[in-house]
Amino acid sequence: MTTLVNTFAALADDTRLGIIERLMADGEQPAGDLVARSTISGPAISRHLKILREAGLIAQRTDGNRRLYAVRPEAMQAIANWTMDHRRFWEAGLDRLDAMLSEESHD
Amino acid sequence: MTTLVNTFAALADDTRLGIIERLMADGEQPAGDLVARSTISGPAISRHLKILREAGLIAQRTDGNRRLYAVRPEAMQAIANWTMDHRRFWEAGLDRLDAMLSEESHD
DNA sequence: TGTCTATTTAACTAAATGGCTAAATTGAAG
DNA sequence: CTTCAATTTAGCCATTTAGTTAAATAGACA
User: Fold this and answer.
1) Comparing A92 with A74, which gets the higher pLDDT?
2) What structural domains does chain A harbor?
3) Of A9, A13, A55, B99, which has the fewest beta carbons less than 10 angstroms from its beta carbon?
4) Which residues does chain A have within 8 Å of residue B74's beta carbon, measured at their own beta carbons?
């Protein structure tokens, strides 16, 4: 598997994408906070965190008892680079590129 | 599953990402050409194409006997939008020049 | 030391995934 | 209307994935 496929695989799950979104929105957080916000068990979250870490999407650091997780910008940049590399494809026929680039949020 | 997770899931496979890359590089192609370039069986490719189509990443059109596939720009744009939405994350700490320019007093 | 809290690892199960071969479908051509 | 070519669908099987509960690990502190 290529690195990029690995990155996509890590994000190809609601729980994991949710964790990433949350870490990006609220910054570094301990595993326990992520468990508290989720409907699934602690061990399940722990395993998702491991998958995200092994895919290079998040960094782990220890603070006493707790483990703090944060998104690694490099991983996000890899996706951004890929989209930019193929920009002519999603740009094609879409005449609002400028608007997109200047807007703050989408979805 | 959110639409975005579905998109990532569709790209979370070497064969499928390869198909997408190839369609973006060389444009619309019949299934047979994609099979010819791959190491796995026709039926396997066919199923991957179905997954990509159901995820909205490619469009299918019929030309006589053959089915032609092409990347749908909208799907790529969805990913591009997501990366743009979180741009501050992958930009942070990676663009030193930008960081310098944004600092008022430092030397 | 012993215990409490935070988190991960282990063991297990059900469901999903991805490959194969064989059969079915669909359009073109004789 | 028969046959050929292109492609998909149908079964089948092995592997991976994501969840669970129970047990293990690691740090903080009386």
Assistant:
1) A74
2) 3-102 (1.10.10.10)
3) B99
4) 90
